[in-house]
Amino acid sequence: MYKMIEFPQLKRIVEAALLAAAQPLSLPQLLALFSETEMPSHDDLARALEELGRDCAERGVELREVASGFRYQIREDVHVWVARLWTERQTKYSRALLETLALIGYRQPITRGEIEQIRGVAVSTNIIKTLEEREWVRVVGYRDVPGKPALFGTTRMFLDYFNLKSLDELPALSEIRDIEEFDPQLTLGPVAMSPLDSEDDNVAEENMDDATSSPLQDDAHDPAVTVASDSLPALDGDPETTAASHADAAPEHTA
């Protein structure tokens, strides 16, 4: 027998699920919470999310849609106080790592050799390793040239971290005037506990082990609460691997 869930109850269920989840939740994941006999319509679910978002207008958290789905996250204007809950040392990344991440974001798919050609210096293995361990970039294919070099692209985790729904939301290159001052978590989303601060320009890339392989901050300390499905927004092809001339690194964090 079909049992329709009342709309107020639907809102409470969705709100509780988003608060309890460890990652952003997509619409299919939210619908999967209900049995066939009580399944809400897509319109009702969308309306519930919309109203939950409005309910946060005067609260310290907001309901935000990112690449993997919907999540509650701390608002930027209160993050400075909430951040004091965590006392771990903030992770800082080198200028070289940030430049590499930006090139992958905006020029993907791109090979390591092409990154080195643009930057004019060799790319440390630790940089690529750190970006892959952080799940911000991954190998999306191989260039059809001698040696078959790997092609790198950004991931759904990259979009979620930098508070983006798609690569289209990356800031224009003209807006990034100084890579050392570029902190996407501050400009695109709530202030994060581990800002991508740059190191001194005179630090040689060969000596960047400490900067690139230091333990990364736990995602639980991010200002936005993450809840992620495995689906990337489509961008002219495979969502996770598609190259976009305007795509780069800018994160998000979860509360």
What can you tell me about this protein's structure?
It is a single chain. With 255 residues, this protein is an alpha+beta fold. It folds into two domains: 7-85, Winged helix-like DNA-binding domain superfamily/Winged helix DNA-binding domain (Arc Repressor Mutant, subunit A); 95-221, Winged helix-like DNA-binding domain superfamily/Winged helix DNA-binding domain (Arc Repressor Mutant, subunit A), CATH 1.10.10.10. It is built from ten helices and five strands, in the order H-H-H-E-E-H-H-E-H-H-E-E-H-H-H. The protein has helices at 7-20, 27-31, 42-55, 76-82, 95-107, 112-119, 125-133, 156-161, 184-188, 209-213, and strands at 61-66, 69-74, 110-111, 137-142, 150-154. It has a three-stranded antiparallel beta sheet with strand order 3-5-4. A two-stranded antiparallel ribbon has the order 1-2. Strand 4 (137-142) and strand 5 form a beta hairpin. Helix 1 (7-20) crosses helix 3 (42-55).
